[in-house]
Amino acid sequence: QVQLVESGGGLVQAGGSLRLSCAASGRAFSFYTMGWFRQAPGKEREFVAAISRTGGSSLYADSVKGRFTISRDNAKKTVYLQMNTLKPEDTAVYYCAAAYDTIPTQHGPEYDYWGQGTQVTVSS
Description:
Blueprint: E1 4-7, E2 10-13, E3 18-24, E4 32-39, E5 46-51, E6 58-60, E7 68-73, E8 78-83, E9 92-100, E10 113-114, E11 118-123
């Protein structure tokens, strides 16, 4: 069992930055690919970014590539999402997720555990 708790969401103006954190429980954090997803009002959940177990590779949605950076600290059992140049269309609830023993993937069903989400609102 893995529990994930996101933090760092809030209200920011367009063009600004936020850093989200996701703290994981358990002693097997390094066995999981970690991902970030988001869901905006009236839209389906969409993939944002994922990072491999060691942090050596990552995957980004086209909509955020070049603006967002995913990273992880296995010693702290934490994954981060640095979000720069935020746009109003980035407004969503952001979820972190853990996928056991796989390469970074954009497919939600591959993820075994999900956090409760943190709200990010970008004003125009």
